[in-house]
Structure formats: C-alpha cells, structure tokens
## 1
Amino acid sequence: MQTRGIEMSQLYTLVRDTTNLTDVQAKILDHMQVALQLASDISRNQVYLCARGKNEDLSVILTAVKPSYTHGSTFFRSGDTRQVEDLAIIDNVFATGRKVVGRMALDQGLTVAVTAYPIVDNAGLPFAVVCFISNSLKQQQVLTDTANLALQVPFDMDTYYSIRPQDGVIILDAMGRIIYANDMADDLYFVLDKEAVEKREIIGHTIVHFPLVDQVMKTGKPAYGDEVSENVTLSAWGLPIISGGKVARTVLVLTDVTAIREKERQILVKDSVIKEIHHRVKNSLNTIAGMLRMQARRARDEDTKEALRRAVSRILGISQIHDILASQSGDRIDMDILLDKITSLSVSSLALSPVNVVREKSGRSLIVDSEKAVPLAIAANELIHNAIDHGFRDLPKGTLIVGTEIRGSDLHVYIKNNGHPLPDDFSTKTFDLGLQIVRNLSEIELKGRFTLKNEEGLVVADIYCPLAVMEG
C-alpha cells in the first residue's frame, strides 16, 4: 500500500504540473495504473496513459509500462511531451471518443503499431487515452481489447502472477470459447483436452472438464491450482475480466510444472525417510538407555553407578535431539527452536531444585544445516546437563542462561549458570569426559572453538562455530 501511495502522489504531481485534469480524473487514472502491468503483460505491448497538456498543442505521457518479461526501456517516459501532430492517433481518439488503430513513426525511425482507447470520466467525456504500442505491426486486437477491459475494473495486485515467456496464455470469451492462444498454450492445452484433436481447432473451441475455469466464470474471482493429465502437471491461473458486472473474458495462464512437482514429491519422500530415521534412532537409543539403567541397578560400585548414570543421561539427551529433529521438516533446522526444546526437556528431567531458565536469542532466524545441528545440539545438551548436575548440586535454586547470537562470521552459543564456580586450578587439562566431548564436537565436527570460564559471578561456556560451516 505504501508503494501505491508513492505512485499516486507522483501521478498527481505530474497531472497538476502538466495538465488541466481535475482531481476526480486524476483519481481515475491512479485507479487504472494499478492494473497497467497486467494490461502490458496480457497485450505484450508497452502501455501509456496520455493526456492533453496545459498547452493544448501538447500531449503528455503520464505513465509508461512495459511487459515484465522484457528488457530495455520504453519508447516514451513518464513526463515526456509531444506535439499533438506527432501523436495524431491520440488526437483522433479525443476527436472521435472511440478506439483507434494505426501506425506511428518514432524519432529513431522505427514504425510501431498503436491501438488507443479513450478513458472517460463519470460524465462519459474522454479526458485521457491509454495507448498500446507494439514493435510488431501485426498487433493482436483481442489482446489489446482484453487488456483495456482489465483497466476498467477494480484490481488487486495480490491476486496477480506475472506472466512469463514460458507461460501458455489463453483468453476465453463470456461463453468459455477460446478467442486467443499463444504458441506455448497450443501444446499445453492439448495435454489437458484430448477432444481438441487438431491444433487449428483451439480457437473457437469451448473449454470443458476444467474445474478451475468453471470456478472463475461462476465466482468472478481469480483462482489458482494444478491440473494433472497422465504424467504432466500444469499450474493454472485464471483471472476474470469483469464488464457490466459479469465475466466478459477469462485470462488463463498455463505453466508446465511437471519437473517441479516431481522434485517436490521427492523432497517430501526424502523428508519422510529422514523423519523415520530420526524416530528409529531415538527408539534405539531409548532401548540402550534402558539396558544401561538395568546394569546400573545391579552395579555395586558407586563410581560405576555414577558412570552409567551419566552415560544414560547423555544417551537420553541425544535421543531427545533426534526426537526433536523428527518433528522438523527438511534438512534445514531452526537452531533456536532446537535449543528451546533441549533446555526445557533437560531442566524438567534432571533438575532437583528450581531452575530459572533465561533464553536469549539473536535478532534473526538461525537456520542451519541439519547435519551440523546435531553435533552442536549434543554439545549444548552436554553443557546444560553439566550446569544442572555440577553447577546447581546441593543448591536450593539456580539460574540457567542459554543464548544464541551472530558475532561477526560466527554463530555463538553460550550457556551460563550462577551455580558453583569453577575451581581455581581449572584448565582444559582437567576436562572430564563430558567437556572433552564438547571440545571435540566444537573443534573437529564444527571447525569452531570452545571455552569455559568464570566470568562476573557466572560459569560461562562459549561455543563459536563458523556460519559458513553451520549453514552448509
């Protein structure tokens, strides 16, 4: 809406400075310019809104639009002025109040085809002209007529899909008969309608067995969907052209999306397989954890029991990660969502006293490759477990801070706690098995670095991973 407001003020400024048009007439032109790109794409022409200047001997180009799929500049630019005799076709439209078709020689010696239509106000008086100009001298009148009709009704840009060179374009009349089809549409349409045996029959042929077209003609609203015939999938978009409160014409755009839909299907299959793998790994890890619990109950040595308990905790932590990954789609993972769930599950299952969890997040989404999300999640899970087991042991309560941020070219994950501080003689040489696992995952798997230190009354663990590695 903001962009349209800017265009409207530009148009008003140009109208005020160069013409004698009223505010009401300027609003009519502003209303029309919303659909100019559609009209240009449908007609395959450059489209211009023109009016008489304050000097009656001049014509002013108010707006210039070219098809969205073409390169280069328009023949005229907004604000250009020409002598009336140089744009005689426009003058003819003002004189007759009717559509005029002809040719025009441009300054650069190029002759172009022009179809011009009057734009009338509420009193039925022509006050401006819309011109369709084509390099080809064989201008398709059905296209310009359809495009001109599209300019006469309210139009919502949100319902418009830009027409591309590879699209098949079909125009239907009020009865559903084909009155125009480009070359691409010939081949695509015969995929859907086997009754039209010969290509020469497509013009004048009534579309049948096409629910999307029926929906557009019945509701008078745009519709979008896929049409499948044998091994071919076509994306179809239907746009009604309303005149007199009824659907006068329908623009049907067809695109072969067979390869795209097949790729999407393969991705869905792959996604389902990956989810099933994560689910089975989770179940297998839970089974192993159960076996180790049984072993721990039978162990007589307390050190052995503690080692098995830690092993069970790590295995269940990894199991939780695979359970979370099984619920996400694709091979891209939102790291913040993963850390949210790991933190919540760890605190609820391990904490023996109240833990206040503080989650600090980056201002942007942290979407990472799933292969890299797993080792980072395991490392973070180990640090969270370490904070709960060692940091808060024998304390009535504690605060756990789990955060993420982008720092330079690194993804920074940090876990802080206000529990027992690290001993004065603490160093990397005294890392226990859990911290060794974190260091190896950070440095070897993720090509990053890991630090653990006392800082401002907190125990702070930092993992830095290159974004290029994490994003795959």
## 2
Amino acid sequence: MIKRKIIIGTRGSKLALWQAEWVKSYLVQKFTDLSVELKIIKTKGDRILDVALAKVGGKGLFVKEIEQSLADSSIDIAVHSMKDMPADLHDGLCIGAIPERENPRDVLISGKGLLLSQLPEGALVGTSSLRRIAQIKRIRPDLVIAPLRGNLDTRINKLEMGEIDAIILAAAGVKRLGLEKIITEYLNEDTMLPAVGQGALCIEIRKDDHDISGFINEMNHFVTRAVVLGERAFLKRIEGGCQVPIAGYGKVENDIFIIRGLVADPDGKTIITDTQRGSLESSESIGAALADRLISMGAKRLLDNLNVL
C-alpha cells in the first residue's frame, strides 16, 4: 500500500506550530499509513507588525494566504485559531472539524502580580485588540492602553522588561504553550467577553475533498462545534471585522445553549449587549437572532459610524 502524504498549512508562530503539530499527532496516531508534513505560510498579519490590526485590514489577516494555498491544493489541511477566521470563508473551502475547545477566556498577566482591579491609575496595559480595549476602558478608564503586536513571546518579553505593566491575552494560547503559571487573573465574561471562536481550533479543508474529510471527521467535538458555529452565525449577521469591538461567547448550561454578544465603540462609552437562549441544535439560528437583537438596539448604527471613521 502506498503511503499517503498530507500537508498541513500553518503560520510559523510557536502557538500556530503547536496547534498544527497537535493535529499532525492525531492523524499519524490514528492513521499509521499516513505521512504528515507541516508547511509554514507567512500571512499579511505576520508581515506587518508595526501597525494596529484594525488599521491593516479586516478579519482574515492571519488566514488569507493559507486559505489560498488550500484552494490551490498546495496544502491539504489548514489549521487556524478560530478567532482569526472571517465570517465568510474562501470559495470552495469549509470548516472540516472543530476539536474540543480550550478555555475561551482572556487572562491578565501583570508584572507585579496585580489584578486588573488593583492596577494603579495610569498603568500601561498592552493590547491591540479593539474588543479588549473597549472593555478595559469601560471598567478602568484610568488605565493607559499600550499598542502591542507580535507573538506571545514578544508580548511577554515586553512585560518582563518593564516596558508595560500588564498584558491581556487569550487563556488558550498561554495554556497551550505551557505558560499557565504566569497567569495573574482569568477575566470573567462580565469583565471581558471573549472573541467569537476564542479557544477553539479551525481545521479547514476543501469542500470536495472527501478523503481528507474522512481523516479529520472524528476530530469534531459535537458541543464545541455547535457552540462555535452559533457564535460565528452571530458574527456573520452582525457583519463584524477587526476594525470594530465585537465579542460573542456561547456556552451550554443545563442542556441550554446561551450566547451573549457585545458591540462597543472603541472608548467603551457605548456598550450594546444582550443574551439569547435556546436548544444547542438551533445554535446558528439563535446566534443570528442575537445579532438581530443587538442591531435593533442600535448596534448597526454604531458599527456603520465606526466603519466610516
């Protein structure tokens, strides 16, 4: 029997490589006749590090080049962080699998071990996420936001060098790289509502590639997939990109799907938020209904105003 080779496309950061290696490990253990290789692809988001993401372009900054390689059949599977995925995928591609989600929350890491509530007035908090900036300013308008780009190591190094007082990161990336011990505080959803898809992986494939679909199908985690697709339905209906502060987080409690969404202006002075509940099987329609609810509360006007700026 000829050994089949599969090529996984990924970004080159430590976290992206961890994620791709995790998928590779699953495949080679489950299908011993497979040869699996990683192909590192540099994205626009990786190349432009001196400009805030919101000024570089919309969602897709970390996936477009990888998606193009997948569409061109240069790679067979693309592994992304789900929170980087735009609402609309490249033509001919689909989400093949969503494995079980890691902790979706954001975390604070501070140089002196201080909680967010304990940081002194004027403390420098590093982040370039408009979603995080708006929510920080809502509860701590006295803090100063320091623009922060680069991989996890770069951000942590700036903190250790004393250039900033604290940073906010996704818990999932910190945990996956084995750095959980440096986390100062897990931020609850009332303080910092997570990004759509945060903590989940996206294993993207070509729609017509049934062989690859068969290999990765069992990587799907039913609850995670349903919850994340509900969040993404919210994102698609609200028409959100990187230029505007949008958050969307779903969970299951007592067999009920609960999704909370948030749209804000960048200074956190205007926050529009609401929650919808229903059956997990209807997660996508519930996510879309949440978006409609926020739009009726003024989210669309807020987003249109921000996109004009």
## 3
Amino acid sequence: MSSYNPADPADLVVSVDTPGAAGTVAAVERARAAQPAWSAAGAAARSAALTHAAEAVEAHAAELAALMVREVGKPLAEARAEVARTAAIWRYYAQAPYAPSGALHEPAAGEGMLLTRRRPYGVAGLITPWNFPLAIPTWKAAPALAVGNTAVLKPAPEGTACALRLAELAGLPEGVLTVVPGGAEEGAALVGSADVVSFTGSTAVGQAVIAATTARGVPVQAELGGLNAAIVLPDADLGQAAAHLAAAIAGYAGQKCTATSRVIAVGEAYEPLVGALAKALAGAAAGEPGDPATVCGPVISAAALDRLTGAVDSARAAGAELLTGGGRVERPGWFVEPTLLARVPAGHPLLEEEFFGPVAVVLPAADLDEAIALANATPHTLATSVHTRDLDAALLAADRLDAGMIRVNAPSSGVDFHLPFGGAKSAGYGAREQGQAALDFFTASRTVTLLPAGGAR
C-alpha cells in the first residue's frame, strides 16, 4: 500500500506491506496479551508513558508538521497547530489515570458498602481518517490507553506515514499501541476482533462498522461527518462573519468534518454577506501547502478533485449561479478553487451530501425560524455556526438546532479537545469522543457489593 503527496502526486511518501485479515487479528491478540500488564502497571506508569508521548511529539514538532504537509497536503500553519494540539491531548489524558474510577455508596440496609468502578474493556480498535492524521488517532488512543486498554490503530491509507511515525515516537511498550496499515480488509478484521471500537470516516463505511460491532455486542462509537450550516443574521458583524465562513469553507480545502458547506443568510444579510464572502474566498486561493501563508491546499486525491468539480459543473448546468471559484487550479497536484454557489436547485447532491472540499452553497431565509429549518433539513447534523449580536436569537438557535455542536460567532470548524465531540442524527452514533466522555466510553461500569463475612467479631 502506498501513500502519495497530494500536492505532488509523483512524490511517494511511504509504501508498506499490509498484514491482511490474519495479520490484523494477530496484532489484536498481541495487544490482548499485553493488556493485563499495561492495566496493572498503575496510574503513575500510564501517566508517565502518556507524558512521554507528549514530550516526544513536542520534540519532533517541525518534523511532524512537515510530514503532514507532505502526506495529506495540510497547510503548514494548520499542520503546526495540529502538532501542538496532539501534544496537548496526550498531556490532558496523562492526568486521567489519577482520576477516580468509581464511587462509594451506602447500602440500602445493613452493614457493608456498595462500589461502582469503571474498568477497561481490553483491546480498543481504532479506525481513523487521513484529514487529522495525528490529532484524531491521539484523541482516540490516549483516553483508551489512559484507562488501561491497549490499542490497535488502523489509519486511512493516505495517512499511513503519519500514524506510523506517531506510534514510533510515543515509544509505548510492545503491544500497547500497534499500527496496522491497510484498507477495508484490515479494517473489517479489526472491527471483528477488538473489544471496543472507535471509528471516524464516511457514512457508508461507518454504518457497516456499526452493524458489525452491534451484532457482536461490542461497544462502538462512530463519527460519520456532516453537512454543516452557518446561519448569519442581519445584525451580525458581516465582515467578521465572512472571514469566519471563508476559513470554515476553504481552510484545509474544506476537508474537515466540521467544515461549512451551507451558508444560510437571513433577510437583509443576504446581499452584503454574499459579496463579502465571495471576496474573502477569492482571496483564499488554493496554494502550495508548505507556504505558511496558504489557507487552502490540495484535496486529497484525483478522485476527490473529479467529484468536486463534477458536482459544481452539475449544479451550474441545473441553473445554479457561480459566485466565485469553481475550477481546477492549473498546477501539479489536486487543487480546486474555493467555490461559492447560489440558487442551487433543491435535491441537488451539494445540498444533501458531504463533498469534503472547499465548496459551499448560499441559501436565503426570511427569518430565523426558516434558517433553523433549513439547517436541520439534513440527516448529517454535526456542527452549525450562528452569527449574531442578539443573545436571545443565539440562545433560541442553540436550543432548536439539531447539531451536536453549535458555535456562536465562531467558525463551524473549531473543536475543543476537552469537551464532548460528535454529531446528531446520522452524523454520529454512540458515545461522544474527547474529554471525560471518551474515558467513560473506553470503560465498562461495574457495581460491587461488599458485605461482612459474618461470624464473631
């Protein structure tokens, strides 16, 4: 299996042998054999190991950022920020082994005590995408390891080099964190053999993962992306809103599950917002990801480029108005211009599917009620941003929007790693990721009753 540079498709980043189903199951069994000792090592040992991982990431920050730029086309400024966040996540979860793992309760009657404890499942199977090739593997692996599980990570093929280097730098004991490179065969084998599964990826693959794990009675969480909206009210600071929206549409070529793909302008906000946003997107031209000034780099593959430009051409043929962008960038690599469309007909795929690129559709709404209805008119409700100076309107939207994350006067694409992360409806399944929610997901609750043994005292 090979991974290539999306900004220079002739550049082979890494080529590795894949283990197949049997090799993946063998990796899970090695992790299962290592798990009792890892769990029994105690809080201090696990905390020190995760702290070491954070320190190693920090010590190799420049190398890791450059690798992300090369392997997944992440603009340098975002790559540096992801490295810093990755180290911060390891440090955050390095404190978790010292946290209480349960509670003490009084019995309903008589002597004794009741305990609740949270215990690790065993082997955590982690399947991660290429777009955050360090942060997402870390925010899955770190909490799983902190509470005493071992982990087997199957990264997306396009992020293989990043995952392998991350695990190497973490320097954990043999079998505690294993990377299994591969594709569907390896992913299916991991889902079929791990004791708890965390998945981030496409809706179609995620639904298959959910079906397979639930059939086995194995806990699963799945983050399946989003068709995210931004609601802009007339009282908003439209210049600030346009800047936030441009960042959420064009940043990393729109290849974030929290990127904005539908802009809903309320009432009189429509005309000035469209002008300001089109100008902002035109100024975020796709460029070389290694340039610190670049916001929009390449998309991940030739297939992604074809799908995006094909969708834009299809919308225009159906009567949509192209406000800016819309074409391929004539340079080596897989680059597409940040694009804004208006009057896209109802039912077009751009209004119903996640395209994972720097393309957005602007929609008018007469009032906030209509804007909320439009934002909710999708099963892929991960993140929605609301732009307004009106606190009442912000609170109303926060109460009525279906999205798992609602951000007021901020881009839809931001994530705070210490808070729960996940979508609503078909955008997510199972427990939330990140923060305390992740620690709960990777452990099972046990209730223990302790009564006196009896006899003379």
## 4
Amino acid sequence: MYPKMKPALARAWRDLQTVQFGVTPAHAVVLGPVDTATGALLDLIDGTRGMELLRLQGRAMGLPDGRVDDMVRRLASAGLLDDSTVGGPRAQAVRARPEAMARLGPDLGSLSLVHPEPGGDLLGVAARRGIRVQVRGSGRVGGVIASVLAGAGVGRVEVLDGGRAQPADVAPGGLGPASVGRLRAEAARTVVREAAPGRAPRTAESQGPEPGLALVVVAPRDGLQSWAPDPQTAEDWVATGTPHLYAGVLEGTGLVGPLVLPGATACAGCMERDRVDRDPAWPRMLVQWRSIHHRRDSAACDLGLSTAVAGLAAAHALSFLDGELPASTATRWEASLPGLHWRPTPVRSHPECPCGASGHDEAAEAESAARSWPEPAVAVGSERRGGP
C-alpha cells in the first residue's frame, strides 16, 4: 500500500488539534483530535512511501508505535485517502495513458469525492471508457452535450441528426464555424473525436460485442420536441428499458429533465396524458405548434442559456452514468430569461400509460428531491463529513 492524501480537498487547521479537509459543505471532512506531530505526518502521505517507510519516519518524528497505522485507518474511513497502486488491471490501464490522465485530472478529482474508496476515481474513469451513449441532436445544446461527455471520458458517444449544419448551429464547445455546410452527423463525429482524451484502450472486452446503450440524451434542435416529447419516438427506449434524458431550449426557456427510467418513472406518454388531462386543448395546439416549428428557420435559443442547459444536462448524464441518480430523475428543471431561476417540477406517471411506471413515482421523486439538496453534517467517530 502506498497511501496518498486526496488532492481534491484543500486542507486547513481549524485550531491546534482539528484539521478540516475541503471548503464546501457537500464534501468537507473535519478530523480531530490531531496533535502537531501527527499533523506533520500528513505531508508525508503523498503516494511515494509505503507503509513500512511511513512507520520508520513516524518513529523518527517521535510518534508512538501504531500511530501511523491508526492515522491511515482514520483517513481511509473518512474517505480522504487514495492509493497509487490499487484498482487492478482496469485502473492500471488508465494510469498507463499519461496524456489522458493529464486531460482528465479535474474529472478524477471530482470522481474521488463521489467514490471515496481508494482507486475509486480511476475505476470511475475506466467504467466511463466502456460506456456507450447516444445524443439525439447536434445543435447549440446537443452538440455541446456530446462534446462534454466525450471530453469527460465516455468511451463511445454517438450523435444522431439530419441535414447539414447551419450558422445557427455553431456554439463554443459544439459545432464550429468550419462545420457549416457539412452533414450534421459527420460534423458532430469530428467534434466528439477532437474532444475525447485519447481513444479507449483495446482489450478483449472492448473487442467483443458492441455495448448496449447506457443512456440516450434527447437534445433536438427543435426545443419543442424536448418540451413536449413525442411518445412514439420514445416507444423503443421504453420497450428496451433504455434510460433517456430530455434537454433543450424553447422560446427563451431552458429545460433539463426528466431523466426517464423505463418502468420506474414517468415517460413521454405519461407526460402527454397528464397534460391532456389538465388542458383538453393541448392536443389541438400541439399539432399546430409541431407544424409551425417544422418550418421555422430560427429559434429563441440564447447562447448563454443553451450553454447552461447543455452543461447541466451533461453533468446530470455523467452523474447517472457514474451510478448516482441526479436531481432530474422524474423531475424537469426549467429556467427562463431574463431571471434564469431554476425551478423543479415533478413529472408523475399516468395510470393509463402502458409504460408500467404508475405506482413507482413516490419513491423515485423522494430520492430525486433528497439528492437535489446538500448532505447535512454527519458525525463518524471523530470525523465529521459536511463541514461547519
């Protein structure tokens, strides 16, 4: 074992015997009591020394036998410790690609907080490299989402879209000016390839059958298709149990969500049935709007808002791919110009929808709401997670 303090959390002494790791409450940890000599040991736990050398240096500093092992155990239990040797072949495959490691350094830092066990960050990146995601749309929202997912280490990002790129599709982080006139799908593949931090390593697993879709991100250039998604488009995803996340901008309003977990949370069919129940004129208006938007050449899709929507949607997608349910699960988040106040709206299953989600919403919504708030401080022995 070559223990190493996680670099993601800044360290500061609260007083002579108490150390706080981290500034923000969501991931901060308070450790105490820690005497001055033991505190000096923290600087030596940098991944370059094995346990035997740390014990020898601890004795040289005047620490009693067992103190080094005790401190390492406390740091590990508080989620503050990494180990530069753990993780097995999958983690080693990531370590063996220094250029990709340099690009993904900030992502590894975030993953080390989400997966606090030693090596959790590398295993998280390794898991992303084996994931296949599909993005439906390559405009100001979809193109940026695809680029972010690829840049964050998702190994296979497919972008589906038709036609040729227009000047209005160009966005920082998405399709560039050189894409104008090219087939959108082809231009999007170039963006994804350039954003990716190196190709995924070829292994026996990667040479096997193509992985199934872990997630579909629905971010069409026509924001109406995210605001009022067509149930027929989502039928295959619901039938195959494929999770899908809606995102887009319509008339100066951005939306992220819902993340649909087929059979567990409300689908597009549920949303349409619910809206018809509340507004009998909705089907008539929807037919007209869909016809108008099909011919519309421009849309109110502010670049700042579209970038914010794309970033939030990509973050929610990554959270889900990393094994956590984001706040968009069974919930739609909306923000409108000019105030841009994000508002959550629960999306409920409909008893007449054949998707089978009816009866599952209460638990899903409660979990989604809980995850949208910071964790309270939790005492764990002498360590406190959550900060002051």
